[in-house]
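Appendix C: a fully annotated inverse folding record. The material below is reproduced so that readers can follow the format used throughout the book. The structure is listed first as C-alpha cells, followed by the designed sequence.
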C-alpha cells in the first residue's frame, strides 16, 4: 500500500492539542495510524490483534466530543494500544502464550479503562513475551517483535510490541508494564522515553499474581512531557485543571531541579557494559556536572540473579492455570513456574523485604542515580535460540541487570534516549529517584532531554 501522507507532530501532547484546535480530526489521525500498522506490522510484529472498525468508530465519537468542547480528556482522539496481558473488551488476552490463546475478554481491564477515560482511541493489542517474563519477544504464538530502528534486532520486552509500535510511528504513545525492566528495556532499545513509576504511585492491577508488587504500569513515549501526561492519565486524576496542580506529573516537567547529589553507576556484577553504552553514561554525567549538579561515581550493587529468581518464579506460578497447561508453554516459562511453586507467597514476601532493604540502603542519601538502562544495545533476533528454559533465562538476565533492582526496591526510574551506537542502535540511560521521587525523575529527565538534543 502507498506511504501514509498525513504530516503529524512527533509528540502525542502536541497531536492532542491539534485535535482540540480542530486542525486535525481523530478520524483522519486514526486512519493514518491504522494504515501505518497495516504497512509495517508484518515486518515488525508489534500488534497481535488490530481492531480497525472499532477504532474508527471510537475516533468518530472523539470527533463529536471535540466539536462539543468543554473540559476534554488529555489525549482525546489520539490512537494507542493495549499490551496483550491486559484485558481489552472484545479482544483476546493471550499474554504471548498458546495456553491462553482462546481467552476472549468481555470487559476492559483497569489500564484500558484509564486509557479510554483519557480519551485514547484503542486500536488493538500489542505483543508481549509469554506471561510477560522475558526481556525480548519471541514466542511460539506469534512472530518476534522486531526493532523498527534495526529490524534484525529485538525490540525488547516484555512491553516490546508497545515500544516498537511507538518507535515505528504506528502509535503516538502507549502504556506498558514493568516487572524487571519491561518498559525501560524496550524504551532503551527503540530510542524512546519509558517510565516505571514507584510502588504505589499508580494503580496496581496485578495484586492476585504479583503479591510483592515488583511490577508497575507506565508509559512508552517519544518525549518526557508525553510520558508525564500518560502517567497523569493512568493515575485517573487528569483534567486540565489538574495539569497545573503541584501533584501533576506534567507540571513536574516544567520545574527545574536545584543542584542535586547524583551518583553514577557504570558496572554490574551481572553484566558487562558495552564501551559505547558506557560512553553515553559518561556523557550524561558530564552534562549534569555542567548543569551544576554534584556528580560522583559509586560502586555496584551486589544483587545476584539467583536472589531475584524466586520473586519472578512465584509471580509466574501465581498465574491461575492448572499445571497441565504448562506443556503448552515455552521452556523458560515452564522452568520458572516449577521454581516458583517451591516457594510460598509468604516466603517470597519475606525475601522481597530483605532485598528491598538492601537496595534502598545501597541507594543511600543520593538525590538521583544515573545508570545504563541496558548494558548493551538491542540483541539480534535469534540470539537465544537453542537454549533450554533455565539457560535462556540466565542468558537474557544481563539485559535487566540495571533495571530489575528498582522493581525490587519499588523506586521510580526512567529510561531516556542518550545516544546511538556506531551500528545505529539506540542507547538509553536510566534516571533513578528515591521513593516518592517521580517528580524529581521527570524534572531531571526533561532537563536532560533538552540538553542532549
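Designed amino acids, in order:
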Amino acid at each position: 500500500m502507498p506511504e501514509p501522507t498525513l504530516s503529524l507532530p512527533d509528540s502525542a501532547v502536541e497531536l492532542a492539542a491539534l485535535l482540540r484546535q480542530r486542525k486535525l480530526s481523530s478520524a483522519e489521525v486514526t486512519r493514518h495510524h491504522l494504515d501505518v500498522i497495516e504497512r509495517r506490522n508484518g515486518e515488525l510484529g508489534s500488534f497481535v490483534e488490530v481492531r480497525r472498525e472499532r477504532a474508527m468508530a471510537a475516533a468518530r465519537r472523539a470527533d463529536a466530543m471535540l466539536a462539543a468542547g468543554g473540559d476534554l480528556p488529555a489525549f482525546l482522539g489520539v490512537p494507542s494500544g493495549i499490551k496483550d496481558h491486559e484485558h481489552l473488551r472484545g479482544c483476546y488476552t493471550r499474554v504471548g502464550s498458546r495456553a491462553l490463546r482462546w481467552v476472549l475478554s468481555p470487559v476492559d481491564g483497569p489500564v484500558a479503562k484509564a486509557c479510554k477515560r483519557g480519551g485514547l482511541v484503542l486500536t488493538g493489542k500489542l505483543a508481549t513475551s509469554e506471561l510477560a517474563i522475558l526481556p525480548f519477544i519471541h514466542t511460539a504464538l506469534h512472530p518476534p517483535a522486531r526493532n523498527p530502528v534495526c529490524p534484525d534486532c529485538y525490540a525488547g520486552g516484555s512491553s516490546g510490541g508497545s515500544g516498537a509500535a511507538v518507535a515505528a510511528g504506528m502509535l503516538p504513545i502507549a502504556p506498558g508494564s514493568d516487572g524487571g525492566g519491561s518498559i525501560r528495556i524496550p524504551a532503551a532499545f527503540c530510542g524512546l522515553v519509558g517510565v516505571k513509576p514507584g510502588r504505589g504511585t499508580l494503580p496496581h492491577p496485578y495484586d492476585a499474581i504479583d503479591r510483592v508488587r515488583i511490577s508497575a504500569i507506565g508509559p512508552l513515549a517519544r518525549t518526557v512531557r508525553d510520558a508525564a501526561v500518560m502517567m497523569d492519565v493512568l493515575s485517573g486524576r487528569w483534567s486540565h485543571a489538574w495539569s497545573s496542580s503541584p501533584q501533576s506529573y506534567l507540571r513536574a516537567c516544567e520545574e527545574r531541579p536545584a543542584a542535586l547529589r547524583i551518583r553514577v553507576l557504570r558496572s554490574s556484577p551481572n553484566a558487562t557494559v558495552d564501551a559505547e553504552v558506557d560512553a553515553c553514561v559518561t556523557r550524561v554525567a558530564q552534562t549534569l556536572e555542567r548543569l551544576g549538579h554534584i556528580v560522583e561515581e559509586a560502586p555496584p550493587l551486589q544483587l545476584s540473579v539467583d536472589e531475584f529468581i524466586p520473586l519472578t518464579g512465584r509471580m509466574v506460578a501465581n498465574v491461575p492455570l492448572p499445571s497441565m497447561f504448562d506443556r503448552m508453554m515455552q521452556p523458560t516459562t515452564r522452568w520458572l513456574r516449577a521454581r516458583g511453586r517451591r516457594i510460598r507467597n509468604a516466603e517470597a514476601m519475606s525475601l522481597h523485604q530483605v532485598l528491598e532493604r538492601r537496595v534502598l540502603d545501597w541507594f543511600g542519601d543520593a538525590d538521583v542515580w544515573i545508570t545504563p538502562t541496558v548494558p548493551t544495545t538491542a540483541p539480534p533476533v535469534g540470539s537465544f535460540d537453542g537454549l533450554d528454559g533455565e539457560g535462556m533465562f540466565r542468558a537474557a538476565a544481563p539485559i535487566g541487570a540495571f533495571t530489575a533492582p528498582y522493581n525490587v526496591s519499588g523506586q521510580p526510574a526512567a529510561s531516556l534516549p542518550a545516544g546511538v551506537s556506531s551500528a545505529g542502535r539506540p542507547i538509553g540511560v536510566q534516571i533513578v529517584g528515591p521513593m516518592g521521587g517521580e517528580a524529581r525523575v521527570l524534572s531531571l529527565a526533561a532537563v536532560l532531554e533538552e540538553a542532549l538534543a
